[in-house]
Amino acid sequence: MQEKLETIKKQLHAEQFKLTPQREATLRVLLENEESHLSAEEIFMLVKQKAPDIGLATVYRTLDLLCDLKIIEKLNFGDGVARYEFRSDDHPHHHHHLICVKCGTLSEIEDLLDDLEERVERDHNFQIVDHRVSFLGYCASCRNVKK
To answer: CB-based burial of residue 138 (10 Å sphere; 0-12 exposed, 13-18 middle, 19+ buried)?
Structure first.
């Protein structure tokens, strides 16, 4: 985690921003919960444990800055709640999401569309820079109790 934090600190400095204690606390929460797709409010509640004086507006501004710098990505899964995850520099769309429509569980699966993406670019003379795929359905737990 410390290595990733140092990399982000360098990114911030390159864009003339400092890694303030509030930004660091927010980043630490994101890093500690990297697989969780937390909302801004969830991030705020966890950051508040590390930095009790922090305000919700500061967390929102930090998240906006990190999104603007393409360090994290703001995701919308159709439930009206924005969630956040780290971006991957080597492959901007490295996974897809499985969303349970009953309990809201969110899971990641690997990117399945590389061949299709190449075909679309070739056949339509179109440069794809990103794609987002979410599959809606029932997780194993909800499927077993659905009937």
So the answer is: middle
CA-atom Rg of the chain in angstroms? 18
Q: If you search the block for the tokens 């990641």, which residue do you land on?
A: 108
Question: Is the domain of 70 the same as that of 132?
Answer: no
CATH of residue 108's domain is 3.30.1490.190
Q: How far is CA 12 from CA 8, 39, 68, 70, 121, in A?
A: 6, 22, 11, 11, 33
Range of the domain at 104: 95-146
H or E element that contains 97: strand 95-100
Tens digit of each residue's pLDDT, the chain (147 residues): 889 899 999 999 999 999 999 999 999 999 999 888 899 999 999 999 999 999 999 999 999 999 999 899 898 777 778 889 887 654 455 677 788 888 878 787 777 788 888 899 999 999 987 777 778 889 999 988 755
Structure tokens at 21: 């204690």
